[in-house]
Amino acid sequence: MPPPRSGVFEGAGERIRVLQPIESKRLTHRRRIWRASLLLGLACVIWGSGCTTTRYITQRPTRENSLATSLQLMRRKGPQVSERTGHVLRRFALQEQFEKNPAEALDQISLLASNNEDNELAFALAELAYIEGKRAERSGNVSDALHRYGMTMITSHQYLFSPELESIRNPYDPQFRLACDLYNEALEDTLRLLAQRHKLRPGQTYEIKTPDRECTIEIIARGKWSDDEFKRLEFVSDFQVQTLNNRHVTYGLGVPMLAVRQQQGGESQYERFYPDGLSYAVTAMLRCTDVDRKRGEPPQNLILEFFDPLTHNQVELASLWVPLETDLTTPLAYFLDSPQFRKRNRATEGLLNPAKAQDLRGLYMLEPYDPNRIPVVMVHGLWSSPLTWMDMFNDLRSFPEVRQRYQFWFYMYPSGQPFWISATQMRTDLARARETFDPQRHDRMMDQMVLVGHSMGGLVSRMQTIDSREDFWKIVSDQPPANLRGTPEAKTRLASALFFKPNQSIRRVVTIATPHRGSDFANDYTRWLARRLIRLPALTMNVGSELAAENPGFFKDTQLLTVSNAIDSLAPNSPIFPVLQRAVKSEDVRLHNIVGVVEHNSFFSRASRNGRNGDGVVDYASASLAKADSEIIVAADHMSIHSQSPTILEVRRILLEHLRDVDAHDRVADRTVDESNEHEDEPIKSGTR
After folding, report:
1. Bridge-partner residues for 509, per DSSP?
2. Which of 456, 477, 497, 679 has the smallest count of CB within 10 Å of its CB?
3. Using CA atoms, how far apart are residues 533 and 416, in angstroms rounded to an integer?
């Protein structure tokens, strides 16, 4: 197919016509060789290295502490009293006593705070107790450190919630946030000391002794992760996120942590959907159950709760709903950096050795299945893996309205095989997930599924929503399928690839930088190279060849039967693309499209056939989709477009639009049910209308 000489860009309400210069054959030839060499070089480098060495998280030399600056925790003479608390000590003539005998000074301040409605005294007591806790911990006196941290938590809690201080409490005072920090950091230091003695896991109860009391701590998990799925806990403040574009946190009370999931053995049918080494976010809160104890009296019974921030973003304290402090990004980065994920994330193996990568194929979940949230399935492209979605996944979950209503799944497949084979396998894998999690088909949100596909993954996704009728069969033969000779297995494999129905659970598809009409990157040179590098499973290679040999004259075109790899399948002259364009999608499916365009002087524009008309891999004419319900253009290259903010915001817009449609349909359905019930009940209630 010759390249178009002109094109039209449409997006954000504007149309821009771009005239394309006709390239000379010599220049086209040179660029094709350059691209083939680039592909070969990259393949050799990555295949030789085995796996990526990108780091997603690093260990901090010293844990992150929000009080480090205000209390000078890192200085040799630290910790030091803040200027504002020093003023309180001087005002009550306690500065010298605190320097000589801190314990007596704390008792004096505690007595003053109990007899005076003064938030400055309450805050000073919390801060000074924390300082003494730090000093005790550094000297190795764990028992005294726990006592002082406990005093900090009790006093800062009183500062934040005590009814006696309500009239003078000022949330606009910077001290209010510092009181939150004192509570959080004292709780974290307490948990760190407890973790040195005990393995903190939900479902356990521990006895804790300090100089002034004995207490019990019961540990409870709040969320969809079971107690048995907590293998170990780590503090997010020990780590620094790398590589991911953004770190998403919310501010409130509690200690953000990460839990490494314990794989469930036995006959669990769900286990295959959760990758080994998975880590997830939790927020720790310590709650006193001795509600009748007097103010200032230490509690004896405590509950340590681990909240899942995907299901709990606030907690009730002192009859108030208080936001939880959360961190969704660090646990994700920890998982991406784990040896288990690095071993599984073999994008190059999926390209060059699809047979070996078949064991890794399937749907993966990074959070528990939730029947009340809509699945969003992300489908990677050629020479890629679910890792490619992590920036979008991380950013989308930062929006409360998205994470509260959606759950994200990731589909992994051997990208070196023809995309229609991957589409066939995905149909099977989606059906298996439905049978596993919702065999009775009671979960309504499963029927509102959204697919998001990048590059070749967009083609795989689109093919889940169309009715093949006999159009795809007619590409290969004009004779009835019943006349085909061959083994039952071979005929079944061919029929499953050419005859299919739309998946009725899918309601929207978002395609990003997708070659809807093929890609000129799949030219004679790259296809020649791919045939020598990519090793498809013998069964895949043999079935088409055997059927063609056993049925001479039966097939008018054997290209779809004998195509050797994904690069071949993406060639613009492939007979599947015209049929795919004409294919009828389900009427209930909305299709959205995002197209990438690079600047003329960019690296990817020099790699492409035409530097002003595409993303460097897919031309605009192929990426644009006239039948789409919406389409925008993003100034980005093929490899990065799905991690760019405009793309992520467009996907968010589509997801919110989908929610409005779902909710509107539910309101109509509820109103219909209510009206029906009203007509049935009225004669019974009143006898007349």
Report:
1. 451, 591
2. 679
3. 10
Token readout for 17 is 């016509």
CA dihedral for 332, 334, 335, 336, sign (positive or negative): positive
Q: What is the chain's alpha carbon radius of gyration, rounded to the nearest angstrom?
A: 31
Q: Could you read off the pLDDT of 185-208 as tens digits, one per residue?
A: 999 999 999 999 888 999 999 888
Beta strands in 406-516 (DSSP E): 406-412, 449-454, 466-467, 506-512
The percent of the chain in helix, strand and coil, each rounded to the nearest 5, is 45, 20, 35
Mean pLDDT of the region 671-683: 53
Q: Is 531 left (phi over 0), alpha (psi -120 to 50) or beta?
A: alpha
Alpha helices in 139-203 (DSSP H): 142-161, 174-197
Cα(542)–Cα(676) distance, rounded to whole angstroms? 59
Q: By CB neighbour count within 10 A (0-12 exposed, 13-18 middle, 19+ buried), where does 609 fall?
A: buried
CA distance 544 to 528: 20
Instruction: Answer yes or no: are the C-beta atoms of 329 and 244 closer than 8 Å.
Output: yes
pTM score, two decimals? Answer: 0.86
- The tokens describing 274, both together, are 């959760």
Query: Which residues have C-beta within 8 Å of that of residue 201, sequence separation ≥ 6?
Result: 219, 227, 230, 233
Burial class of residue 681 in the structure, from the number of CB atoms within 10 Å of its CB (0-12 exposed, 13-18 middle, 19+ buried): exposed
Cα 445 from Cα 250, distance rounded (Å): 27
For the chain, which domains are there? 6-52+352-437+444-482+494-539+566-659 (3.40.50.1820), 66-344 (no CATH)
